[in-house]
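Box 4.2: Ligand-aware structure prediction
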Amino acid sequence: MAQIIDGKKISAQIKEEVKTKVAEYKNQGMEVCLAVVQVGNNPASTVYVGNKKKACELVGIKSLAYELPEETSEEELLNLVNKLNNEKEVNGILVQLPLPSHIDEEKVTNAIVPEKDVDGFHPANVGALSIGKQGFISCTPYGIIQLLKRSNIEIAGKHCVIIGRSNIVGKPMAMLLLRENGTVTVVHSRTKDIKEITKQADILVAAIGKPKFIDETYIKSGAVVIDVGINRDENNKLCGDVDFESVEPVVSAITPVPGGVGPMTIAMLMNNCVEAFEFQNR
Ligand code: GUN
C-alpha cells in the first residue's frame, strides 16, 4: 500500500507553527504584515488572493489588500510597489500573477525589494538559492521539500527527476533537491525520451500542466511521486498531472490532487512572511 502524503495535514501543521510565532511577536507588541496586490479581476487570481487573505487571518498575519483596476498603468503599479518597499510596517509584498498584458511582469517582480519578496521570484533570491545562500524560496517547491521531509522521505543520494522547467516550480525545485543532496535530472517538452528517464526516478516531481499525463508506464516500482498539477479531467473533476489510479498501486508514496502539493503553497507563503519579519527585525 502506498503512503498517501497528506498535504492538508502537513500544511495545517506548518500554519500552526507560524501562528504560534506570530502570536509570540504580537505579545511583544509587533505585527507581521503582508501586502497583497491584484491588478484586474482574473477569476483564478481572485480565488488565490482570497485564499491568501484567509490564511493570513488564520495565522494572525495582518494583510493589506490592494485591488487595482485592469487599466492600472505599469508606472502606477511600480509606484505602489515602491511605496510598499519603503513602508516599515510591511514585511512582505506579493503581486499576484499573471498581470494584464500591458504590464511587464519581470519589471514588477524585479521592483520588489528582495527582503520583502516572499514569493522568491526576484533574481537576487533565485540567485541566492542557486549558490546556497539565504533568501526567499518559491513557495510551491519549498512546500514540496517540506512534504518530503515531514513524511520522512530521504532525499540525499536519490535520483530526483523533475518534469517541467518553469521559473516558479521546475528550476527552483531542481536547486532545492540538489541542496538536499539529491541527484537531479530535469526533463521537459524537448526531452527525447521522457519515459526512459522518469523510469529511473526514485523521486518524481510532475509539473507539466497536462491532466493525468503520467501513468504507471513512466514509473519505477517503489518510487515517490509528487504531483504539482491542478487540472480538470474530462468530467470537469479536479485532477493532477499524474493518473493516480494507475500509478498509486506501484509507488511507495504519492501526493493526491486535491490535498497534496496545493495547500502547501500558501502555508509556505505564511512561513516566508514570518521569515521576512524576522529578517527585517533581526
Ligand atoms: N500566480 C500563480 N501562482 C502564483 C504565486 O505563487 N505567486 C504570485 N505572485 N502569483 C501567482
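In the box above, the bound molecule is guanine. The first strand starts at residue 3 and ends at 4.
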